[in-house]
Amino acid sequence: MKKAEPPGIEPDGEDSNLESADQRADGRGTLTREDLAAAIHRRFNAMSRREAKRLTDSVIEEMAATLASGESLKLHDFGSFIVRAKNERSGRNPRTGAPVPIEARRVVVFKASPNMKAIVDGAPPAPNGKRRHP
Asked: According to the UniProt record, where is the region Disordered (predicted)?
């Protein structure tokens, strides 16, 4: 079965500009900020490594600031990051069984788009960004 590419990325054959997790030099299965900057540098030859790192950092900082302000973040064909408020509740210390109060807080949840779910499942992305119907 042919590996599906993320939305908006066209496969280039053997000399693809973006590496998959199993092709990274260090063998990690996690894409890091450094990996993103390196991929941007390879994709855009005119951009230096320093500029690619600055761009990556700027995008991540903007995303974090948006979420910290309580706004949701939607990336078409990727998914949505949503800030949810959790109420105060009672929990238990697993070691002692004693009740422990858990303070109210905000959390970020991620909801993958239908296309991203299909790609992760090994299906090709929907053509032209059209939605998949389950």
From this structure: 1-32
